[in-house]
Design a protein that fits this description.
This protein has 507 residues and is of the alpha/beta class. Helix content is 60%, strand content 10%. The chain is built from 18 helices and 9 strands.
């Protein structure tokens, strides 16, 4: 049996030589059809060999290369302006519904209207020269880039954005860690389509708005009915498009380097002094921090309230465990307490530095395990090397020594949970929130992770709220106060040990 491809994708059975032969056959077929058409309408369509000879004669002249250079310069400037403006507009349009509704008619107007209808007014206003042609190219490029990038923004992973709002808040982290890496394929697609479109747009722009360039030469040949010269310049334009197509992969790699965040972090040699200060902060005894909810109520939109009158107080070294049926609002309550959601009524007091472990790991797939763990430290102002060294210290304590350079996709489910837990403590939090943190793992794995959590919590004691379907697991390792959330709207109630045992569980 043949060996399966390593990446799992089917591979073409065609040899590279076969593909070259097929390409040559396709060119021969094109030339044959062209020759046949030229025989039928010789007065209007010169033969392929005649056009090739005329194009070669043009390219042998120095002035032809000057005309080509002028067009290429205009294409590059116009495309760069349209691409930059379209990418920025696409990010704004795709991220805000109100702006999308406001700007969508304008984008569709420029996308759907034939360039001829607004190229001529631009030339009338600005006159003949570089500026109107560059502007026409930019305006033709702009809407296509905007639409492509906006589509990418609409598919941004909301969960990763929520994670960054806690661990790396601010526009800089959001752009670098989420927006640009996620938009890589969309920016690449806009680059490929937009650049070829810009070359074609240059013909329209120069036809009406310039006195030089390839488009102007095509216009001059057309108006003087020099058919052979017209086809020769058209072939030169095709050669320019082929040149840009050849350069596109290299431009795509350049755009990817600009847009991407590095995946695998380079090896960092850590000395004890590199992490001593952070470790001393981490193990220092925190005092005075608490989480308090007073008469908190919340409803999604205009729906009925999900939570009503929730009251809870958790001091340092305390763990409050909240349990309840699925869908009752436990995650909503936790997000309210952590500040991810804003209550409709009531008051919530919490420390500024929050550690959170979500139901899913929410690790950035393009970042290494060490980079994911160090994320809150790095964007909190700690130097990169120190951040990575302290991340390695936490990962080693979490049982992931030697896995720091791997990407999340290379980890098992349990390893991802360990990394997410290490990231939570890397925040050096003043309060911790856990939302069914080890769901989906078997009992032995959950037990090991709770042991790890309690061990790290003993080094860094802070108030904790845990939402879980298995309250007895954390209660086995640490004294807890148990609460249930039930009803519609849900009400939070503390449960005594005796009451809980009566329902078949031991806190």
């Amino acid at each position: 049996m043949g060996r399966a491809p390593e990446d799992g994708r089917p591979r073409s059975g065609k040899h590279p030589v076969d593909r070259w032969l097929l390409t040559a056959a396709g060119i021969a077929l094109l030339l044959a059809l062209w020759g046949l058409v030229s025989l039928v309408g010789r007065s209007f369509v010169p033969g392929p060999w005649t056009t090739l000879a005329d194009a070669a004669a043009l390219l042998a002249r120095g002035d032809t290369w000057r005309q080509v250079g002028i067009t290429v310069m205009r294409v590059c400037l116009g495309f760069a302006a349209g691409y930059a403006a379209g990418a920025a507009a696409g990010m704004v349009v795709g991220s805000r519904r109100g702006v999308d509704a406001l700007l969508k008619p304008t984008v569709l107007f420029f996308q759907g209207m034939p360039p001829l209808l607004w190229a001529i007014p631009i030339v009338v206003v600005l006159g003949i020269g570089h500026l109107p042609t560059i502007l026409v190219i930019a305006l033709i490029t702009f809407p296509n880039v905007t639409v492509t990038v906006a589509e990418g923004m609409r598919t941004l992973p909301r969960e990763l954005g929520e994670m960054l709002s806690l661990f790396a808040p601010g526009p800089r982290a959001r752009l670098r860690e989420l927006v640009f890496p996620h938009l890589r394929p969309f920016l690449g697609a806009a680059l490929k389509v937009g650049l070829v479109l810009a070359v074609k747009a240059s013909v329209t722009a120069e036809y009406f708005g310039a006195n030089n360039g390839i488009g102007f030469q095509i216009q001059a040949a057309y108006q003087s009915l020099q058919i052979r010269r017209l086809f020769a310049w058209a072939l030169v334009l095709i050669l320019v498009i082929l040149l840009f197509n050849h350069l596109l992969p290299r431009l795509g790699k350049l755009a990817s380097r600009i847009a991407r965040a590095p995946g695998r972090s380079p090896a960092v040699t850590c000395r004890l002094e590199d992490i001593r200060e952070l470790k001393s902060i981490f193990v220092s005894k925190k005092a005075g921090h608490r989480i308090a909810l007073e008469e908190v109520a919340y409803a999604y939109g205009r729906d009925e309230p999900v939570i009503a009158g929730a009251a809870l107080s958790v001091s340092a070294r305390e763990i409050a465990v909240v349990t309840g049926d699925s869908g009752v609002g436990k995650t909503t309550l936790l997000k309210l307490a952590a500040g991810i959601l804003t209550p409709d009524t009531g008051r919530i007091d919490r420390p500024r530095r929050i550690g959170f472990v979500f139901q899913d790991d929410r690790l950035l797939p393009w970042r290494s395990v060490a980079e994911n763990t160090a994320l809150p430290l790095y964007y909190g102002g700690t130097p990169r090397k120190n951040s990575l060294c302290f991340a390695q210290f936490l990962l080693a304590d979490a049982g992931l020594a030697g896995d720091e350079g791997k990407l999340p996709g290379e980890l098992s489910g349990g390893m991802k949970k360990r990394a997410a837990l290490a990231r939570c403590f890397a925040r050096i939090p003043d309060a911790i929130f856990l939302d069914e943190p080890f769901s989906g793992l078997h009992r032995e794995a959950r037990t090991a992770l709770w042991q790890m959590f309690v061990r790290l919590l003993s080094l860094h004691p802070v108030p904790v709220i845990v939402v879980t379907h298995f309250p007895e697991e954390i209660a086995t390792h640490h004294a807890c106060r148990l609460y249930t959330l039930a009803g519609r709207p849900a009400v939070l109630r503390e449960v005594s040990a005796a009451t809980h045992r009566a329902h078949g569980r031991a806190p």
